[in-house]
Amino acid sequence: MIKYIGSKRVLVPHIVRAMSAFPESGRVLDLFSGTSRVARGLKETGRYVIANDHLAYAATLARCYVQADADGWLDDATQVIAELSTVAPAPGYFTQAFCEDARYFQPQNGARVDAIREEIVRRALPPELEAIALVSLMEAADRVDSTTGVQMAYLKQWAARAFNDLQLRVPAILPGPARRFISRRSKRRRPWRPTWRTSTRPTTSIATWATTTSGRPRSLG
Ligand SMILES: C[S@@+](CC[C@H](N)C(=O)[O-])C[C@H]1O[C@@H](n2cnc3c(N)ncnc32)[C@H](O)[C@@H]1O
Fold first, then answer.
1. What is the distance in A from the centroid of ligand 1 to the CA of 104?
2. Higher per-residue confidence, 168 vs 213
3. 166, exposed or middle or buried, with CB in 10 Å at 0-12, 13-18, 19+?
4. Pocket-testing residue among 3, 32, 206, ligand 1, by greatest number of atoms within 8 A of Cβ
5. Per-domain residue ranges for the chain?
6. What is the per-residue pLDDT for 177?
7. Residue 65 CA from chain centroid, whole number
8. How far apart, in whole angstroms, are the C-alpha atoms of residue 37 and residue 20?
9. Which residue's CA lies nearest to atom 3 of ligand 1?
């Protein structure tokens, strides 16, 4: 799971325990879901979870950990992530902005982020599978970054882990049928393959507004 200031990681078991006092509430709303840790913890209890966050990265995490049903997507995700792992590095915007103009990542890892990100876009995957692939890349990048988990800040001295090679892993998505939601992006999408398996039983859903933010990289002094 991604390092993130404000994450409720250590609170999740307490929240889940507190929620067990309301067994009749089968439907919960995680407003401002961030890393989706809370929403994911509640999905694990079998509840119908609605998650919302206006940041694109948070929406992607929620689409992966809340919306995607492992029973429907795990096999395809495993295959896609294995294929993405073989993509040749190709430095681009990410390498320039985050490895050369700033020092969040070693350039060799930045070049892999660039190449894998481009390949994910090129494949025009269905939203859930795209989100799983992106989260795999985000988490892989997080394991080799040179930050303390504070937004927009990188370390003056390289973190030791930054010298490791970026490696994709399949995110630990949960089983549980999901209902697809319509977003501006998914309306434009053509299916990656015509034979997609999608669930129709709505027990978990997510509503998101994905916007992007920008900011100047700065060093953590
Ligand atoms: C402290 S973080 C949430 C932490 C989250 N519970 C977790 O465990 O990772 C706050 C989140 O609120 C989101 N947020 C802030 N204002 C929002 C708004 N008006 N609409 C949707 N999301 C918003 C931010 O994007 C951020 O991800």
1. 23
2. 168
3. buried
4. 32
5. 9-211
6. 64
7. 8
8. 17
9. 34
Angstrom distance (rounded) from CA 29 to CA 49: 6
What mean pLDDT is predicted for residues 115-130?
97
If you measure from the C-alpha of residue 65 to the centroid of ligand 1, how many angstroms do you get, rounded to a whole number? 16
pLDDT at 1 (0 to 100) = 65
CB 213 within 8 A of CB 97: no
Q: What is the DSSP letter of 163?
A: G
The mean pLDDT of the chain is 82
Task: Provide residues with CB under 6 Å of ligand 1.
Answer: 4, 6-8, 32-35, 37-38, 52-55, 58
Cα→Cα distances 88→114, 155, 183, Å: 10, 27, 31
Residue 124 DSSP code: T
Q: What b/e readout covers 64-97, taking b as 16+ CB neighbours within 10 angstroms? A: bbbbbbbebbbebbeebbeebeebebebeebbee
d(CA 178, CA 43): 11
Look up the pTM and report it: 0.82
